[in-house]
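Side project, low priority. Logging it here so it doesn't get lost.
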Amino acid sequence: MTTSPAPDAHGPVAGTPLAEPGGLLPAGPTLSLASHRGPRHAVVTVDGAIDYHTAPQLLGHVSTPEMRDVPLLILDLARVDFCDSSALGAFVDVQRRRSDAGHRFALTGVQPEVRRILELTRLTTVLPLHATVEDALAAH
């Protein structure tokens, strides 16, 4: 995301997204996604808020053939401090698709704010949660 350098009486406030080059609309937020594969698993480390704007990016990343075909997919959410209903829908969609394909899925490093939302929606009974990636690997 491109931001202005400083507040200015003649320009945007610092932190306000500017338009994409050649575009009319402000640039949307993005997630930082880093993946690594093991022999029978993949870990996707997510950094940033998962919401209406970024959930499609996450779904696209975990739907690639190299992620889709791995026996165990782990989303490490240690750097995610916010998610909305779009994120919850994405988690359930990934869980359903992986289960239908005979593959497993787990969430790790869930922060208290995100855990609270998962508990309120009772998704903790549907989605496998583990404290760490190592715990998820040991459980599966």
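Brief comment: Residues 85-100 form the longest helix (16 residues).
Revisit when time allows.
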